[in-house]
Amino acid sequence: MNAFVARYLSVFLDGALVTVELALAAIAIVIVWGLVVAVARLSRVRGLAALAGGYIQLMRNTPLLVQIYFIYFGFAMAGFGLSGFASGLLALCLQNGAYAAEIYRGGLQSLSVKQIEGGRALGMTPWLTFRIVVLPQAVARVVPPLGNQFVLILKDTSIVSAIAVGELTHVGKLLSERTAATYEIFFVLAAFYLVMTSIVTTLVRLNERRVALLV
Amino acid sequence: MLLDVLIGNLGYLLRGAVVTVGLAAATVVPSAVIGMVLALAKVFGGMGVRAVVDVYLYVIRGVPLLVLLFFMYYALPYSGIDMPPLVGGVLVMSLYFGAFMAEIFRAAILSLPRAQWDAARSLGMRRRLLFQIVIYPQVFRLAAPPFVNTCILLVKSTSLVSIISLWELTLAGREVAERTFAPLQIFGGVALIYFVLCYGLSRYGLYLEERMRFAH
Fold first, then answer.
1. Beta-carbon neighbour count of residue A1 at 10 Å?
2. Chain B residues within 8 angstroms (CB to CB) of chain A
3. Where are the domains of chain B?
4. One pLDDT digit (tens) per residue for chain B, 216 residues
5. Do B70 and A172 touch (CB under 8 A)?
6. Cβ pair A166, A209 in contact under 8 A
7. Contact B168, B159 (CB under 8 A)
């Protein structure tokens, strides 16, 4: 087992690097995109709120894999083909952005309106009320579920292997078709994913404690 | 017409959708049972049992479903365990979603006030009766909204078995898209079918959540 792992370790590491790139890019975009969608969803402009709601429902009720196929094969046929990496990233962001939007919305709505009224009654501007009353509390409530979503994003990157992006799962699949050491391959794969998800979980926990102190 | 290709192949795709529904239904029941057993083990088990369950949950929650499916498909045949993809797919998905259901049931069990246990015991109820008429009815009601939401994830995840060449909606879509060179329409149609399957579940989940809010 050790000889095999040592021989192919650099191949696995290359795959893991692509997985990390995909996951980090997706997480960074989802943090912003989810907030944009949540604000649109809560907007007083009817059309905008309905649009955001429709988008969230569409994403939550269709599989990531089908979205990846739609973007990768469909866009190419329509004349603006994206690379496998870009297609996978786009699909990951679209799907997880919808979940993140619901998390943000929950965080913003869980605050009592009285707090905002209280801030306004004290003579604070709406922006100041938002910045020092709403935002710190919303962040504290949003960080734990968002962290869970980040772990799911990291795991979801494996699905991008279906369109032959050379990330960790794809590397494992190729190696197990070429060699007979399938057990070794999957233990290494599982170990890599466990280490990566544990790092994300630990980072989120540490942050959770920090934002909890803010409130 | 642009959509003729989709309409012409709709029958084939719908047959795939029937398999998808069957797969999801075959997975939901064992994963709920596994989830409940794990949750009970985690709440009431001894230290050894709890440690085993913790390791199981840690591994399942940290490794992607697709990797577990590949393990069943590529690695297990080497030790002579050669399951048909249908059986293996349902088994792996049940084990995977069982871990998620376990968290849901555990949270529901722990959210029951301690006083209810004491009250039931002081009325002289046996353990079995206590579970039957006090614990389970409440746990199922509390767990219903997140359970339904997990069912949506489960239906969506059945698409992954297409990668290990198990024929269902997504694989049917791939076949048709490759044959007709119309991936936009076909995968759009496939997405729409999944949407129809899941949207009802979504509404039901929302309804259960609303009802819960009024109950409290």
1. 10
2. 58-59, 61-67, 70-71, 74-75, 78, 152, 156-157, 159-160, 162-163, 170, 173-174, 177, 181-184, 187-188, 190-191, 194-195, 197-199, 202
3. 4-215
4. 678 889 999 999 999 999 999 999 999 999 999 999 999 999 999 999 999 999 999 999 999 999 999 999 988 988 888 888 899 999 999 999 999 999 999 999 999 988 888 898 899 888 889 888 888 999 998 999 999 999 999 999 999 999 999 999 999 999 999 999 999 999 999 999 999 999 999 999 889 888 877 665
5. yes
6. no
7. yes
d(CA A193, CA A145): 20
One-character DSSP codes across B145-206 = HHHHHHHHHHHHHGGGGGGGT--SHHHHHHHHHHHHT-HHHHHHHHHHHHHHHHHHHHHHHH
Class of domain B4-215: mainly alpha
Please state the length of chain B.
Answer: 216
What is the CB neighbour count within 10 angstroms for residue B18?
A: 11
CA gap A168, A17 in Å, rounded: 8
User: Which one, of B102, B77, B78, B100, lies nearest residue B87 by Cα?
Assistant: B77
- DSSP reduced 3-state for B46: coil
Contact B191 A66 (CB under 8 A): yes
- Residues of A9-48 as b/e, b for ≥16 C-beta within 10 angstroms? eeebeebbebbbebbebbbebbeebbbebbbbbeeeeeee
Delineate the domains of chain A, giving CATH numbers in brackets.
Answer: 2-214 (1.10.3720.10)
Cβ-proximal residues to B6 (8 Å cutoff; 6+ apart), any chain: B182, B185, B186, B188, B189
The predicted model scores a pTM of 0.91
Distance CA A184, CA A5 (A): 7
Residue burial B137-153, b: 16+ Cβ < 10 Å; e: rest: ebbeebbbbbbbbbbbe
Do B16 and B77 touch, CB atoms closer than 8 A? no
